[in-house]
Write a structure and sequence with these properties.
One of its GO terms (biological process) is synaptic membrane adhesion. The protein is built from six helices and 39 strands.
C-alpha cells in the first residue's frame, strides 16, 4: 500500500502507478493506494519488477509529492520438476565388459532458483535396469554393474533413470528418461561344427573344380567376428580335393582338385578344420577358436570311354610299302570294371583321301593307297575308339605317320641350262635330286651313249655334283650350225640306282679375243616373256574406254544438229504467239481449217465459227493472195518427210513448230514488230465485234487509242 502524508482522507488526492506490468499485471487503488497483482506470478518468467508511484491532486492533476520508485522481487517456490535434455538416450558397450565400464551420462535441469533453498538441487536414481547397470546420483553417469554380460544371451537393455529435486527429499518433484543400451559383439565364441562327420558322393567323371559338397561351422558371433576359414589338414584325399570359403554364407565348399578314378580308389577320408580369421587375445582363455570335422567322400563308378595306352602315336613307314601292309597298332581299353570290348575307326575328316585304314577289332593301321614321300611327308590322322555296347562312349587319339624315303626318283636338272661356245669355252652344270638327302647325295655325269662318239663336245665329271663341258674341236661356224643339243646322263649312288637324261643347249656365238660373247645368229639366249594377263586386261580396258568415248562424242554432235529453228525470243523471224484461249481443242474442227492454209480461196466468207457467237458480223480484212500457195505446201511436206524419216524422232504424237507463214497469209502477219510500225494507223474497234473471247484484247487496244486521243 502506498500512502502520502498530504492525504487528508478527503478524497482530494489520487494515486497513479507506472512501470513494469502497471495496469496489466499490477493495479493500484487510486483512493487508498493499495497495489494488487491481477494474475499468478512466475519467477521463472520474470523475477523482478520495477514500479513508479505518485500522488497527484485529483482536481488539478498536479503531483503533490515527487515520484517514488520501488522494486518488487518474486520469491521462488519449488514449482518446476527436473527436465532431461533428451527424452530417449541410446548407448552401446562391448559385451563382456568389466564392472564400472562407462556407458553414457544423462543430464536433467531444474528451472527453479538454485540459490534459494533446494528447489533446483537434482539427484539421479535408477528405476529400471538393475542389476545390470547403476547411475551416479550427482553426475548422472551410467555404468555397468554386472560382470560378463553376453550379447549372445541378451543384446538389448532398457534402463529408466529418475531425476528428483529438493535433493531427493520427500515432496520433491521428479522427471524420468529412458536409456536404450545395446551390447556390441566381440569374438568370444569359437566356430563349432554341428556334426563330427560328413559324407558326400561324387561321380568319377566330375570335372576338375566342380563342387562336391558344402559344410558349415556355426559361430554365435556376428560380422567379422564370425568369419571362418576352412582348410584340409590331413587325410588320404589331401591332394585330390580342395576347400574354399563362401564369403556370403561362411560355408566351406569342397571341390575336386584332381581327376577321380573309381577303379583306382573309391573312398577318401578328409579332416577339415574351421578357424576364426579375427581372434581377440583377451578371450583366448576360453579355448582355441577353431574346430574340426571328418569328411568321407565316396567315388561313384560311371561308364567311361576307352582310354588309349598313349596320348599320341608316332609311326614310320617307307614310301614303297605295298598296299594293305600294316604299319602299326594302337591300343585302348575300357577303364571300367566291366571291361567292355572296344572297336576302332579312323576319323575320315583327318584322312579325306582314305590313304589309311584300321582293323576295328585289334587297332592295326594299314595302307589302302600308295604313299609318296615327295608329295606328302607326314600324315596326321585321328583314331576313334568306342565301346561296342555303348558307342557314345568314345575317345580319340592323334596318330602321326612319317613316310620314309626310298630312292624312287631319278636326279634331274633343277633348271633349264643353256650356254654358248666360242673357241675354247667351258661350263659347269649342277644337278640336284628330289629325294631326301640326310647324308648328302652324290651324282655322276656322263654323255648319253648316242652322243659319246659323235658329239662335238666332251663331258668331265668333277666328282662334286658338278661337271664340265669342253669343246672337242677347235673351231665352230655359227653360220653352218648355230645350236647344239648335248644329252647328259645324271645318276645317283643310292640303291636302286636312278638316272635320267637331261639336255644342255649350246649356242655358237661370236666372241671377242677375251671370250666375251658379242652376238649369235640364232635367237637371244634369254627368251623374252610374253605379255602378262594383267597387261592384256589393261590394254583391252583402254580400247573399250576409247570406243565408248568416240560413240558419246558422235552422239553429242548429232544432237547438236537437231537444234530447233527458233532458239531464243530474240529470233528476228516472226514467231507464233500462243494465247490461252484457243478454242475447243482437237474436237474443234471449225476453229481452224488447214485447208485454208493450203488453198486460200477455199475460205467461205459467209461461214461463221461455231465456238463463238459474235454480236455483229465482222469481215476480216485480207490482202491479195496467190492462186496456189505452193511454197507453204512444199515447206510442210518437206518437214513431214524429215520427221517421218528421222530415226531420233519419238514414236508418239508431238508438236512441230514450223515458224513459217508463207506468202500472202490470209490472216496477214501477227508479228508485233510490224504492229509497232503501224500502230498509229491501226483501228482496233473491230475487236469488240469478235465476241467475248476477244474482249480482253479489245479493252487493251481500245484503251490505248483513248489515251492517245486524250
Amino acid at each position: 500500500q502506498l500512502h502520502s502524508d498530504q492525504d487528508k482522507g478527503d478524497g482530494s488526492l489520487k494515486y497513479i502507478l507506472s512501470g513494469d506490468g502497471a495496469g496489466d499485471l499490477f493495479i493500484i487503488n487510486e483512493n487508498t493506494g493499495d497495489i494488487q497483482a491481477t494474475k499468478r506470478l512466475d519467477r521463472e518468467e520474470k523475477p523482478v519488477y520495477i514500479l513508479r508511484a505518485q500522488a497527484v491532486n485529483r482536481r488539478t492533476g498536479r503531483p503533490v509529492e515527487p515520484e517514488s520508485e520501488f522494486i518488487i522481487k518474486i520469491h521462488d517456490i519449488n514449482d518446476n520438476e527436473p527436465m532431461f535434455t533428451k527424452d530417449v538416450y541410446n548407448a552401446s558397450i562391448p559385451e563382456m565388459s568389466d564392472i564400472g565400464t562407462f556407458v553414457v551420462q544423462v543430464t536433467a535441469t531444474d528451472a527453479d532458483d538454485p540459490t534459494y533453498g533446494n528447489s533446483a538441487k537434482v539427484v539421479y536414481s535408477i528405476l529400471q535396469g538393475q542389476p545390470y547397470f547403476s547411475v551416479e546420483s550427482e553426475t548422472g553417469i551410467i555404468k555397468t554393474a554386472l560382470l560378463n554380460m553376453d550379447r549372445e544371451n541378451r543384446e538389448q537393455y532398457q534402463v529408466v533413470i529418475q531425476a528428483k529435486d529438493m535433493g531427493g527429499q520427500m515432496g520433491g518433484l521428479s522427471g524420468t528418461t529412458t536409456v536404450n543400451i545395446t551390447l556390441t559383439d566381440v569374438n568370444d565364441n569359437p566356430p563349432r561344427f554341428p556334426q563330427s562327420t560328413y559324407q558326400f558322393r561324387v561321380p568319377e567323371s566330375t570335372p576338375l573344380g566342380s563342387p562336391v559338397g558344402r559344410i558349415k561351422a556355426n559361430d554365435a558371433d556376428v560380422d567379422e567376428n564370425a568369419e571362418i576359414e576352412y582348410s584340409i589338414t590331413e587325410g588320404d584325399g589331401y591332394d585330390m580335393f580342395g576347400i574354399t570359403t563362401d564369403k556370403d554364407t561362411q560355408e566351406g565348399i569342397i571341390t575336386v582338385k584332381k581327376a577321380l578314378d573309381f577303379e583306382n580308389k573309391n573312398l577318401y577320408i578328409l579332416k577339415v578344420e574351421a578357424t576364426n580369421t579375427h581372434v581377440d587375445p583377451r578371450f583366448l582363455y576360453l579355448g582355441p577358436f577353431k574346430d574340426s570335422a571328418t569328411v568321407r567322400i565316396q567315388v561313384e563308378d560311371v561308364d567311361e570311354p576307352p582310354v588309349f595306352s598313349r596320348p599320341a602315336f608316332i609311326m614310320e613307314v617307307k614310301e614303297d610299302i605295298p598296299i594293305n601292309s600294316v604299319i602299326g597298332t594302337v591300343t585302348a581299353q575300357d577303364p571300367d570294371a566291366a571291361r567292355n570290348p572296344v572297336k576302332y575307326s579312323v576319323d575320315r575328316h583327318t584322312d579325306m583321301d582314305r590313304v589309311f585304314n584300321i582293323n576295328s577289332g585289334n587297332g592295326s593301321i594299314f595302307t589302302s593307297k600308295p604313299l609318296d614321300r615327295e608329295t606328302l611327308l607326314w600324315h596326321n590322322i585321328t583314331v576313334i575308339a568306342a565301346e561296342i555296347n555303348n558307342p557314345k562312349q568314345s575317345s580319340r587319339v592323334p596318330v602321326f605317320i612319317k613316310v620314309l624315303d626310298v630312292n624312287d626318283n631319278a636326279p634331274e636338272f633343277a633348271m633349264f641350262y643353256e650356254t654358248f661356245v666360242c673357241e675354247n669355252a667351258k661350263a659347269e652344270q649342277v644337278a640336284v635330286d628330289k629325294d631326301d638327302s640326310y647324308n648328302g647325295h652324290q651324282f655322276s655325269f656322263s654323255l648319253a651313249p648316242e652322243a659319246a662318239s659323235s658329239s662335238n663336245f666332251t663331258l668331265q665329271d668333277n666328282r662334286d655334283n658338278t661337271a664340265g663341258i669342253f669343246t672337242r674341236k677347235t673351231r665352230y661356224n655359227r653360220h653352218e650350225r648355230s645350236t647344239y643339243f648335248l644329252p647328259v646322263v645324271i645318276s645317283d649312288n643310292d640303291y636302286p640306282i636312278q638316272s635320267s637324261t637331261e639336255t644342255v643347249t649350246i649356242r655358237v656365238c661370236a666372241c671377242d679375243h677375251r671370250g666375251k660373247m658379242l652376238s649369235c645368229n640364232a635367237e637371244a639366249l634369254i627368251h623374252p616373256t610374253g605379255l602378262s594377263t594383267g597387261a592384256l586386261i589393261a590394254i583391252l580396258l583402254c580400247i573399250i574406254i576409247l570406243l565408248v568415248t568416240v560413240v558419246l562424242f558422235a552422239a553429242l554432235r548429232r544432237q547438236r544438229k537437231k537444234e530447233p529453228l527458233i532458239i531464243s525470243k530474240e529470233d528476228i523471224r516472226d514467231n507464233i504467239v500462243s494465247y490461252n484461249d484457243e478454242g475447243g481443242g482437237e474436237e474443234d474442227t471449225q476453229a481452224f481449217d488447214i485447208g485454208t492454209l493450203r488453198n486460200p480461196e477455199a475460205i467461205d466468207d459467209n461461214k461463221l465459227r461455231r465456238d463463238i457467237v459474235p454480236e455483229t458480223l465482222f469481215i476480216p480484212r485480207r490482202t491479195a493472195t496467190t492462186r496456189d500457195n505452193t511454197d507453204v505446201r512444199d515447206f510442210i511436206n518437206q518437214r513431214l518427210k524429215e520427221n517421218d524419216t528421222d530415226p531420233t524422232a519419238p514414236p508418239y504424237d508431238s508438236l512441230a513448230t514450223y515458224a513459217y507463214e508463207g506468202n500472202g497469209s490470209v490472216a496477214e502477219s501477227l508479228s508485233s514488230l510490224e504492229s509497232v510500225t503501224t500502230d498509229g494507223d491501226q483501228d482496233y474497234d473491230y475487236l469488240s465485234d469478235w465476241g467475248p473471247r476477244f474482249k480482253k484484247l479489245a479493252d487493251m487496244y481500245g484503251s490505248m487509242d483513248s489515251d492517245k486521243d486524250s
